[in-house]
Amino acid sequence: MKEVVVATTNKGKVAEIALALANLPVKVLDLSDFSDIPEAVEDGDSFMANAQLKAKHYAHHTGKACLADDSGLEVDALGGAPGIYSARFAGEDANDAANNQKLLAELIGVVPEKRTARFRCVLALADIDGTIMTADGVREGIIGQDLRGLGGFGYDPLFYMPEMEKTMAECSKSEKNDISHRGQALKIMTKILGEYLK
Ligand SMILES: O=P(O)(O)OP(=O)(O)OP(=O)(O)OC[C@H]1O[C@@H](n2cnc3c(O)ncnc32)[C@H](O)[C@@H]1O
Ligand SMILES: [Mg+2]
């Protein structure tokens, strides 16, 4: 059976991606199956550039086909920030809690109608022969006033979806995959992978 490495250091992403790939005839590995792999330097200027450079970096270091993800949150009231800097919004080694606190602090006094935002995700599949395939997705929402829900990761507890009357962190993993930016990109990528595996 062919193998593909889910090449991300983010355990939340690994879980969502592995769930979406579960029905494909492929052995799914992740970076915990390898040792001494240096972390990719994300110095691209777009989600697309970063996703591609991560996929190539990890394919080079694992010697296997790698699926990488670059994603983030764009908040309109902040001119699209944190965007590609979402992981380090509150500083170089920031964790999810610190990033969420920073986001709430930046939006103090901003009314709900002006708290519009979106998650973006670009997935890149790099084969060892240098071939790269990509897929993307976007999900609109509103930044809440407080944290709600325990599921997901990152900014999920602050990402409120009015038509669902809940935050992304109040969704189960499969529900999140049905409606999220990553889920959308994964629907396209599973088709691409299906072809690639033939
Ligand atoms: O680069 P890798 O190793 O994949 O892991 P990462 O966590 O550093 O991932 P990114 O560089 O793509 O940074 C994206 C950040 O955007 C946020 N993010 C991305 N997708 C998200 C989601 O589905 N829900 C909540 N926050 C998300 C979260 O804070 C991530 O750390
Ligand atoms: Mg990263």
Automatic annotation (TrEMBL):
Keywords: Hydrolase, Magnesium, Metal-binding, Nucleotide metabolism, Nucleotide-binding. The keyword Secreted does not apply. One of its GO terms (biological process) is purine nucleoside triphosphate catabolic process. Binds 1 Mg(2+) ion per subunit. The active site is at 70 (proton acceptor). Pfam families: Ham1p_like. Belongs to the HAM1 NTPase family. This is dITP/XTP pyrophosphatase.
